[in-house]
């Protein structure tokens, strides 16, 4: 089977034709999440407590900005709950893509201990082909497969290799978590060494790395450069993000940038005074327009690029 491109996206509500996605896409978000390792409940989006606020935000963004799709990168060991994803997607009338994989090492699940690449690949392929648990919901992307530091740890390398093999076997694309933006080139080298084409890889959190040369190198390979923590001012200013994005575009790589906000704790929700999922549309894109971006460029960054990434289409197929 030729896995070079898929013209339908796999969402929690079923298959969706790429042509049906007429509005913007959030390329890296969390709708349900549990990364609470401190016991303070901050790094949590609890379906019982926060689903209504999340649904209201997404619905409002659909009405105001035409939000059409959210790529939800909560995977194994991160509190994934695809039943809740499906109900939020239905109630907000916004399509949601669910993910499979493993996050970076502090969040690895016990099944990884001592497992080899083949065993972990089989786990991922089974979920992609048969659905997550008994839900029948099938993941539409691999992610966010993580590493931290400049080089993945041994366990992280095993997970990344398994993800690459599962992506090759199933035709899905793969999004990474590069902690604080570091290690993206090492991730890309490892993934492509397993035979996964670079255009089916998105390297995460690159807006946290103030290194335009690395961004150009990732983009020149054909991989996507994710500026996906927009609005997280405690990590990086949006002024710096904008400068880095403009530099990447001026280097000729506008077709390789992905944008999102990576809402990963309930304090980021608007009803708790946070920037919300809409910060990209309400604040960052207006600043990008002020820097000279026109409607076509905004559409490229927020719709066509993420659709090309998710569908696995190469430039020749667009």
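Sequence proposed for the structure above (318 residues):
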């Amino acid at each position: 089977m030729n896995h070079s491109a898929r013209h339908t996206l796999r969402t929690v509500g079923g298959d969706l034709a790429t042509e049906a996605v007429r509005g913007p896409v959030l390329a890296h978000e969390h709708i349900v999440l549990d990364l609470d390792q401190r016991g303070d409940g901050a790094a949590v989006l609890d379906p019982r407590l926060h689903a209504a606020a999340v649904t209201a935000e997404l619905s409002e963004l659909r009405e105001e900005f035409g939000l059409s799709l959210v790529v939800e990168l909560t995977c194994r060991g991160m509190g994934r709950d695809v039943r809740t994803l499906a109900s939020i997607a239905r109630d907000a009338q916004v399509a949601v893509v669910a993910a499979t994989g493993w996050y970076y090492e502090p969040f690895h699940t016990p099944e990884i201990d001592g497992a080899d690449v083949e065993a972990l690949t089989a786990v991922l392929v089974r979920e992609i082909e048969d659905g997550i648990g008994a839900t029948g919901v099938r993941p539409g992307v691999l992610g966010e497969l993580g590493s931290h530091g400049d080089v993945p740890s041994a366990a992280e390398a095993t997970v990344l290799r398994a993800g690459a093999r599962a992506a090759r076997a199933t035709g899905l694309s793969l999004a990474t978590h590069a902690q604080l933006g570091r290690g993206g080139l090492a991730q890309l080298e490892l993934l492509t060494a397993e035979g996964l084409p670079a255009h089916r890889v998105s390297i995460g959190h690159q807006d946290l790395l103030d290194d335009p040369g690395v961004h150009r190198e990732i983009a020149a390979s054909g991989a996507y450069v994710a500026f996906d923590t927009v609005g997280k001012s405690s990590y990086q200013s949006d002024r710096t993000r904008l400068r880095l994005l403009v530099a990447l575009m001026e280097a000729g790589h506008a077709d390789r940038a992905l944008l999102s906000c990576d809402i990963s704790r309930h304090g980021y929700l608007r009803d708790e005074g946070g920037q919300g999922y809409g910060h990209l549309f309400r604040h960052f894109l207006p600043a990008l327009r002020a820097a000279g971006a026109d409607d076509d460029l905004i559409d490229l960054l927020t719709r066509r690029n993420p659709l090309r990434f998710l569908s696995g289409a190469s430039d020749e197929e667009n």
